[in-house]
Automatic annotation (TrEMBL):
It is an enzyme of class 1 (oxidoreductase). Keywords: FAD, Flavoprotein, Oxidoreductase. Pfam families: FAD_binding_2, FMN_bind, FMN_red. It comes from Loigolactobacillus bifermentans DSM 20003. This is Urocanate reductase. Its cofactor is FAD; FMN.
Amino acid sequence: MKYLGGRIKMSNESKHIQGEATGHNGTIQYEVDVTNNKIEDLKILKHSETSGIFNQVIDKLKKDVIEQQSFDVDAISGATVMTNAILDSAKQAVAAEDVTLTPIPKKQNVHQTTRLRADVVIIGGGEAGLIAGCRALTMGQKVILVEKNGYLGGATILNGSNVVATGSKVAAAAFGDNGDSPERLAADVARECRQTNLTDMTTLMAHNIGPAIDFISDFAGLDYMKAQTQTPEHSVERQVELPSASSYEFITKVSKAFEDHGGKILLGAKVAQLTFSLAGEVNGLVAEAQDETIKIKAHSIVLASGGYGANTEMRGAESKGIDYYGPMTSTGDAYRFNADLKLKTHDLDWYKVYPHGVETEPGIAKLTTYASKQATDMGAIYVNRQGKRIVNESDVYTKFRDAILAQPDKIAYLVMDERTWQAFYDLLVLHDFTAKEIEGFFANQDKQPLFAKGSLAEVAAQAGVDVAGLQQTVATYEAAVKTGQDTEFGRDAKFLHDFEGETYYMVEQRGRFATTLGGFSIDTKTMQLIDHQDQDVRNYFAAGEVAGGANGHDAMPSMMNSWGISSGYVAGAHASENADAAKQNGANDLNLVAIVGTNASKSYNRQLLHAMRDLFEAQANIDICEIKDLPLFNEDLVNDVPTSVQTLSDKVEDADGVIFAVPEYDHAIPAALKSAIEWLSCATHPFKDKPVMIVGTSLGIQGTVRAQMNLRQILDAPGVDARVLAGNEFMLPQGGAKFDENNHITDPGSVNFLKQCFSNFTDFVQHDARELVK
Ligand SMILES: Cc1cc2nc3c(=O)[nH]c(=O)nc-3n(C[C@H](O)[C@H](O)[C@H](O)COP(=O)(O)OP(=O)(O)OC[C@H]3O[C@@H](n4cnc5c(N)ncnc54)[C@H](O)[C@@H]3O)c2cc1C
């Protein structure tokens, strides 16, 4: 990082301080505007970062800096290198200009737990998650999308938006009636991956990509058009792309449409675990955000968390020697937070390997596809370390990828003349490289990555390629150009061009991958994940790269986007139908803990809770918890919390609400209950903001009225901080005569009153959560 010393002083008070920070892809030039020692603005003058990410991140960073009048603000998750570089550099630059900032401390938020409810919750804000969310919204659901990064887009945002449009109105407009069909697309997929695909997934993709493209075009105002490049793997023209040729456009427009239609996006919230109903069904998730744990309950959960290419521990033998060029945030979190579910997976060691890449950091590649393709179209050749050509350079990518991987060092060298280099260079600069970076490659003493310029012998020597072998190869190739016949590899004559001049360029080409092709297995009839016994995991759906198989061992160009978009579209519909069914069945997705307020073995209050559990079976899962195994509270023990206390505390913490059934002893609550609350307010604090309902029954006619008042007072104490529903008191007098042998309340009037109180309580529990999802 560097301070340029480039201050432009506008007046005595105003300073415009310029500096440079080193981002992922090179220099970021910025300006900090300061007036009277106050930061007014942080402007970016120039950068070469991935725009889709940078644009989303920089506004948030600027807002934090100005609000807090400091560069000691939090980096943005998922973009920490870039944001920390700007913060560190700007801090130094401003200090060097004698600016004394007066930081406005960020409101110290105590870590809090937020509870939300939705019909459908989506994990992951890439294309699969967003389209699933949009579909569910149009089917009338309340949808929350949770994204761990401080920005949307995942791997999607890095690609060129190319996708197939088979069967869509978009395709009809772009290609007319050209003989394409879902069956033809499925056949192309199967052929290109050598029949390694899961056919039911491929069929689903082929039949749904057209409707999905039309749906999202209408929903988000996307304007797909014929893609500039129609790759030869597809037997017919069917590839489309957005006008900007970037999925940043997809993410921006689709996320806006999602929010405009009432969807809620939570950024910087990393899903860490799922939650389950008492019946053991998935019914929500827990996400960790800054200063906040977010617990979301939903009828349907859609897993769309992308691939795991950045997780080197998960990568298997097939990725050895192949560089990664995908996002560092594709860490495969889902394989951790789903571990207990024992989900079925398949082909976790399959990667989409491309032949065009240069290793810019150890193990990390940048792709050169557009530049390399242009170079071979202009006559460039691929050679190995012996200087021998290895493939028909104009064939489909898989052929020369396999040829490169067949080399002992898994490297090929692209040889071109000055004329071709210029075109190659222009495309590198257009796609993610900087001029300075390329200059540095040539200057590198250790020749990593290999970029060489000179005579044929010089470039060969720099690359460690056999000089005589290369000279012989070039002579043979030039003879083939003259005759128009590449007898060695059968390259099409239109791609055979002479090398012009005496200056040659040589650039390494390594296998690289960004996309993982295996993943969790799904039931394509329901889009639900399946477990080791091939059973559907109820309420739990998946879409996108996290669910592998549609493209087999090798995705044709455009087919990962096609899978992400089509599977998201279908999963969104299934998740929505599942939510509707749950709502129609009056699904009991409320998890309540009911605490028996005594340690006595015979208790009418225990009976009352059992009665409530049966009575409200359809509305809530009620877990009846005892306090009789808890030791008497003793402050000496709070640093060594007994297991029985911790277990109860965890249950309360995880519950949507708590019911106390309280007997009355000497005009107050029993000592055993007071002791339990002391544990759960001193050693732990699970009642904080927890909705609470109090019920009670007694042998006499007052039905625990004093104990209930006493309990309300206790639950209001600092450290307990429960939210007890005001004006909701259920007391059952003469409890000894009010239960039958099944613990059911016999008095219809009391049952009706209890129903009313319970309904008030469930509304109360759901109130806050509803606020977020209108
Ligand atoms: C550089 C590059 C170029 C590509 N080019 C093409 C191409 O030209 N054509 C093509 O078809 N395919 C291409 N692909 C592949 C394609 O982009 C992906 O397969 C596809 O976008 C995956 O979409 P997705 O929605 O499943 O996952 P993603 O877009 O990766 O989205 C998943 C999201 O889930 C989030 N997430 C993960 N874990 C959690 C968690 N614990 N809590 C909350 N959120 C979480 C991630 O942060 C991410 O935002 C390319 C990929 C890359 C990286």
